[in-house]
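Lecture 7 notes: from sequence to structure.

We start with a single chain of 114 residues. Read the sequence below before looking at the structure.
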Amino acid sequence: MENGSFIHLDEDTVQRVSSAMPPEEEMQDLAEFYRVFGDSTRLKILYVLLCSEMCVYDIANLVGMSQSAISHQLRVLKQMDLVKYRREGKTIFYSLADSHIVTILSQGLDHIEE
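Now the structure, written as tokens:
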């Protein structure tokens, strides 16, 4: 490259790739979605829920943290639509929101175990 010019610019490829890119707002949302997976406590909670629907008390026991800390993390996971809940009497049971979460966790683990 001399004088800051490109040696070759494939305008067709650049246009095709540019039009395939999601809008900026979606890219920001996707980055935020993946940021949630960057916390090992949240990942532990998701893996617990991968095995079984559970209440906060049981999740806290399995993960070795306070119910308060687990509740806080569950709130984050709910806001990102990664977990859902149902009430049975006074107890709230949490589970994974849908099969996409199972796929994301499974593929992530497969990738790092290769």
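The CA atoms of residues 24 and 30 lie 10 Å apart. Keep this in mind for problem set 3.
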